[in-house]
From TrEMBL:
Name of protein: LysR family transcriptional regulator
Keyword terms: DNA-binding, Transcription, Transcription regulation
Species of origin: Paenibacillus wynnii
Domain HTH lysR-type per the UniProt entry, residue ranges: 1-58
Entry-linked InterPro entries: LysR_HTH_N (IPR000847), LysR_subst-bd (IPR005119), WH-like_DNA-bd_sf (IPR036388), WH_DNA-bd_sf (IPR036390)
Length: 298
């Protein structure tokens, strides 16, 4: 089908690489090459300059890329209108999410959506905020959930919900018996941190800089689960989303250090590429998420 060949061509053009395009489309490299060769034979023109490291569009390829994007958009829109006639929501959504959203908030939302729309194929990729932003920017993901915001000009940012950040400690930590702690008491402590690129790390770094908190020693983990386990084991204190530690706080495995006169919040945001097309499945998914978020704010 010509649409399949055009989709392969557009993906190769955007990834500048046959193998990367094949991975995204679940095609072998020979399969990708066959689609491109068939297009070149049909149009009677070379579409791509090939080299071992990179693929570039020829002049003819640039013309086809512009029109192929339009053809694929019209094809998707036609499919959506036909699905609406049949009153069915089908298709696939590839979602990216930061660790906090992906592991503690999104699963329940996806289960609810999947029960209502079982014909929609949902795929979730979890990474830190920078990784999610990068994947949405390169069209590897339809949407992304991130901690905080981004100033990337290629992306549209939609506010989703507020997230409370708290400082937690081991149960036997010297500060754990205080009803409230002053910010100054957090200085010269051992901290357990997320890696750079994480929204949680960016928030905690900003908090420490703003309150002039120097760190005695730090340990870095690349997941919030790792940070939480390290705190529980007595390694140090940490700043995490309340979503992540609510069960451990309830069971008494760790303690919350309540900071006097300080309520720490950040935003969870949804990001999309500005030039991306929307399937009916994605539109319905976003509508349900955002309607429920608005109802909670009222």
């Amino acid at each position: 089908m010509i649409v399949d060949a055009l989709r392969v061509f557009v993906t190769v053009a955007e990834q500048s690489h046959f193998s990367k395009a094949g991975e995204l489309l679940n095609l072998s490299q020979p399969g990708v090459s066959l689609h491109i060769r068939n297009l070149e034979n049909e149009l009677g023109a070379k579409l791509l300059h090939r080299s071992p490291k990179q693929v570039r569009l020829t002049e003819a390829g640039a013309i086809l890329y512009k029109h192929a994007k339009q053809i694929l958009t019209h094809y998707e829109e036609a499919g959506q209108e036909i699905q609406m006639l049949q009153d069915q929501v089908t298709g696939s959504i590839h979602i990216g999410a930061s660790f906090t959203v992906g592991e503690y908030i999104l699963p329940a939302k996806l289960a609810e959506f999947a029960n209502q729309y079982p014909q929609v194929n949902l795929q979730v990729t979890i990474g830190n905020t920078e990784e999610v932003i990068g994947a949405v920017r390169t069209n590897q993901l339809d949407i992304g959930f991130i901690e905080g915001e981004t100033q990337d000009a290629d992306l549209t940012v939609i506010p989703y919900m507020k997230d409370e950040m708290i400082v937690v400690s081991p149960t036997d930590h010297p500060l754990s018996d205080n009803i409230v702690v002053e910010k100054e008491m957090l200085r010269d402590q051992v901290w357990v941190l997320r890696e750079h690129g994480s929204g949680t790390r960016a928030f905690s770094d900003h908090f420490m800089e703003e309150t002039n908190i120097n760190v005695k020693r730090s340990y870095v983990f690349n997941s919030s689960q790792g940070v939480k386990e390290a705190v529980s084991a007595g390694l140090g204190i940490a700043m995490l989303s309340r979503w992540i530690v609510r069960k451990e706080l309830a069971s008494g495995e760790i303690k919350e250090l309540r900071i006097r006169h300080n309520h720490l919040e950040r935003d969870f945001s949804i990001i999309r590429h500005k030039d991306s097309t929307s399937s009916m499945a994605l539109n319905v998914f976003l509508q349900k998420l955002l309607v429920r978020t608005e109802s909670r704010r009222e």
